[in-house]
Design goal:
This protein is mostly helical and 70 residues long. It has 4 helices and no strands.
Length: 70
């Protein structure tokens, strides 16, 4: 969800999120924030693979996260 919020803030050119400045203004990264958002999304799948790959419900979990993110 954090990655989606980062992308949304950049696309909307949001300046604040509940009072603090948005990530892309704090670090003056602008559209480079998209890389951070993709990294956050990728970490989810690395975590799932690392801890749940051998479980029979692994594919169900991955599908669940795909549905939530897309």
């Amino acid at each position: 969800n954090a990655g989606i919020i980062l992308v949304n803030d950049v696309l909307d050119d949001a300046h604040e999120k509940r009072n603090p400045l948005c990530w892309h203004f704090v670090h003056d990264t602008g559209f480079e924030t998209m890389n951070d958002a993709l990294f956050l999304e990728r970490v989810i799948y690395l975590f799932l693979e690392k801890y749940f790959y051998n479980k029979m419900y692994y594919s169900t979990m991955v599908k669940c996260f795909h549905n939530v993110l897309f």
